[in-house]
Amino acid sequence: xxxxxxxxxxxxxxxxxxxxxxxxxxxxxxxxxxxxxxxxxxxxxxxxxxxxxxxxxxxxxxxxxxxxxxxxxxxxxxxxxxxxxxxxxxxxxxxxxxxxxxxxxxxxxxxxxxxxxxxxxxxxxxxxxxxxxxxxxxxxxxxxxxxxxxxxxxxxxxxxxxxxxxxxxxxxxxxxxxxxxxxxxxxxxxxxxxxxxxxxxxxxxxxxxxxxxxxxxxxxxxxxxxxxxxxxxxxxxxxxxxxxxxxxxxxxxxxxxxxxxxxxxxxxxxxxxxxxxxxxx
Amino acid sequence: xxxxxxxxxxxxxxxxxxxxxxxxxxxxxxxxxxxxxxxxxxxxxxxxxxxxxxxxxxxxxxxxxxxxxxxxxxxxxxxxxxxxxxxxxxxxxxxxxxxxxxxxxxxxxxxxxxxxxxxxxxxxxxxxxxxxxxxxxxxxxxxxxxxxxxxxxxxxxxxxxxxxxxxxxxxxxxxxxxxxxxxxxxxxxxxxxxxxxxxxxxxxxxxxxxxxxxxxxxxxxxxxxxxxxxxxxxxxxxxxxxxxxxxxxxxxxxxxxxxxxxxxxxxxxxxxxxxxxxxxxxxxxxxxxxxxxx
Amino acid sequence: xxxxxxxxxxxxxxxxxxxxxxxxxxxxxxxxxxxxxxxxxxxxxxxxxxxxxxxxxxxxxxxxxxxxxxxxxxxxxxxxxxxxxxxxxxxxxxxxxxxxxxxxxxxxxxxxxxxxxxxxxxxxxxxxxxxxxxxxxxxxxxxxxxxxxxxxxxxxxxxxxxxxxxxxxxxxxxxxxxxxxxxxxxxxxxxxxxxxxxxxxxxxxxxxxxxxxxxxxxxxxxxxxxxxxxxxxxxxxxxxxxxxxxxxxxxxxxxxxxxxxxxxxxxxxxxxxxxxxxxxxxxxxxxxxxxxxxxxxxxxxxxxxxxxxxxxxxxxxxxxxxxxxxxxxxxxxxxxxxxxxxxxxxxxxxxxxxxxxxxxxxxxxxxxxxxxxxxxxxxxxxxxxxxxxxxxxxxxxxxxxxxxxxxxxxxxxxxxxxxxxxxxxxxxxxxxxxxxxxxxx
Lengths: 281, 294, 441
Prior knowledge:
The complex is a heterotrimer.
Chain A: H1 6-23, H2 25-33, H3 38-42, H4 54-64, H5 73-104, H6 110-119, H7 125-138, H8 145-153, H9 157-167, H10 171-179, H11 184-195, H12 197-212, H13 216-221, H14 230-237, H15 247-257, H16 259-279
Helix pairs in contact in A: 2-15, 4-15, 5-8, 5-9, 5-12, 12-16, 14-15
Chain B: H1 12-38, E1 41-43, E2 50-52, H2 56-62, H3 65-98, H4 103-111, H5 118-129, H6 135-142, H7 153-181, H8 185-193, H9 198-227, H10 230-236, H11 248-258, H12 262-285
Antiparallel strand pairs in B: 1-2
Helix pairs in contact in B: 2-12, 3-7, 3-9, 5-10, 7-9, 8-9, 11-12
Chain C: H1 2-20, E1 30-36, H2 41-56, E2 60-66, H3 70-82, E3 89-93, H4 97-102, H5 110-116, H6 128-133, E4 144-149, E5 151-156, H7 157-162, H8 174-186, E6 191-193, H9 198-209, H10 216-220, H11 233-247, H12 261-265, E7 269-275, H13 279-284, E8 289-292, E9 310-316, H14 322-336, H15 338-348, H16 355-363, H17 366-369, H18 375-381, H19 397-412, H20 418-438
Parallel strand pairs in C: 1-2, 1-3, 6-7
Antiparallel strand pairs in C: 3-9, 4-9, 5-7, 5-8
Helix pairs in contact in C: 5-14, 15-16, 19-20
Keywords (chain C): Signal, Transport
Signal peptide (chain C): 1-28
GO cellular component, one term (chain C): periplasmic space
């Protein structure tokens, strides 16, 4: 910050810590639960300090999850990673291209396409889930990665974000590029893309997690346990009614299933800074 | 909404748009068309008998007093969720942008909750707040507060609003932060040299420059509150007690997915789509005028 | 920057390539798809059953597929049927029974599957209370009872002692139960009783157990548009009492499904009617609890009659090759063997589907070692089911339960009295049933 204001900084830290206490509390709670025994978790109120079963539960999670539907945890994680990456990358590519077309070009039908895309911002998932399922069956895409990802790549939110960002880019920049003789492709590659890193990084985080945490769609279109994702595996272990649930293991795996998305968050933080530096050039 | 300086090109823009438009047609327009068609029919769940009934499904839905009730519930719920999630996230993002020390740790911890799968989040809320077993619920009741969202509609509403906003704060935080990072520090420095304090700098420089992001998040949060929250409501209150937390989309979900009443459910979705498309058009046509682009 | 560029392009291409080459291993055996909703320990049980069956022969391979919660599984099955790719077997929960019965041409009755495949099938080998719930009006067994439970009364012995009640004598009737609850509350304890599943226990089973009609047309068995009868004087009296006890906390409402169980497990509430399937949690929590019959009203003629099962059954979709049904039949025969049934019963807390498994378990001395485990079976087979106790068949059972839950919640919150609540429930349910039935005409 510009001037040194110790009180202001202190206040900022204070607000952030309060915010984290509230926002991240459920995760802390899950972690605590993952260090207790199942009866301790089920007998309310559950304690709020970690118990002594950390090694036991996490060891059990690594050993025990191998038996979920006869599919190894490695396979589940691989599937989930492929789904999350395909959705994140596919959506970013498609969206940045269409936003580029809408903001930087003038062509007949521009407004038609604009509304065509943005009206779908509003289409609820559950309205389209059964008809979409029918489409996937007709295309023979049950139990394929394409079927798992393609319908989820279709969404206008990312396009909208890029459009919002592109609108803030000063006209002078395009003028300058054109005077330098840059065509639309070079302008996109050399100027627009580097400027977009911050937004791409933020979107990548969000979309990766979005893909990672999908439940209903993978459930509907996979009939082969080998195509399951980690979230389905996790849900298979949880039963509120009648059956025994090993809550301690469920909690441990819940925490483990969060590690890859968190890794993505941490990795992408470098890009936030990078985008900032680039745009100040 | 259009720029002054554009590239003159006849073919390229269509090529750029092609993938998105193709996917949109197959996975949005076709299913949406199916939903509209379905709303004019009455089917049994397995699709043996399909009868054209005109607008009968709509008449049925609109004459249902519960539908009007859930309209009210939806307005209260959506406004509360959007305002709560946006204000809290903006506050945290501005603070996180300010601090120097511990910045990355704060960011990570604030984004982390987004990684909780919705399918799992419902379970966590039960463990925390359900009056029967929730840890926090037991603590609340030990202080003498009569916490019983199973029968008290207002408390149930507070609980689902809290759960839904909680889920969205990380998302908003991330994009506000990205927006803040993109604001050239030189602008703020210049204002500081002119003697503007932090509050004034925020309202005169940062907030206007952040408005494209804010507009994006306003639209996304409206959609989120309207559509993406049925899972939370389903897990936390099931629309109860006595319909106190039954929003429009929860009703669509419940009537279609649980009660297998496809016609009524489709009619409700079509009405819902009409409402939200109107909202989007209003937001793009009027709210966007106040957005400050370059 | 160029590097990042290239990375994105390369990974996108790699992913695309991967999506195009999903391997499908060659299969010599005929696969039997079995979609189910069993999670937790029961998911393991399902996997093991399939494995065991597959090891007994080489012709068929049963493939269990978890399809989420009960409603999610049913929706997946319906969607797949509409897309002409249904599984062979689907597990459908109790309240979905009416929907499946309404779709007779989508399904193949289990009785036919077994007979056509030349398997030994005699309906009388199965527990009458269970099998009648899953049979058509003409007595044809439509689905295979997989996991059935029945509501019983659980009580906390320590709480009983503290209140000066006999910990070995659980209350038998509802008036006794309410008296006991009041005594427990008066002894300074926080809550006398709670309940799980208010509609299943206090409406559906309440009617069957007290031999009262739940709805016209044999509770919907013989008509698509039954009218509910759940606002009889006894129904009203029961709910009025609950509402009065709720006011001072003697009774504490605990939610629409099984959430209230933790009120019992924590020792907060001393008594709780709940599914027999829930016994595992009480045992695991290591609490000193006892079990008794589901209470009834002595003044009801014929009470106690029989309870009706909750849980789920296995349905077979129509339209598969005849050879596949042979495999399905073999699998059901495998599931019906006394060895498998007794094991399932003893491990899971669900009821045995066959008489032989019940007898074998009894002979083994299991019930002496595990008191309480025989109660739900006795409740189910003490008497031949009457037209009030064969079960409830409504095409929109989940919706009707929602309506009833809403009215009950408004009642317990003091917004209306029991008569208003039940009259409203009947009126609204009847209208909803009429609407839903239109889709089937």
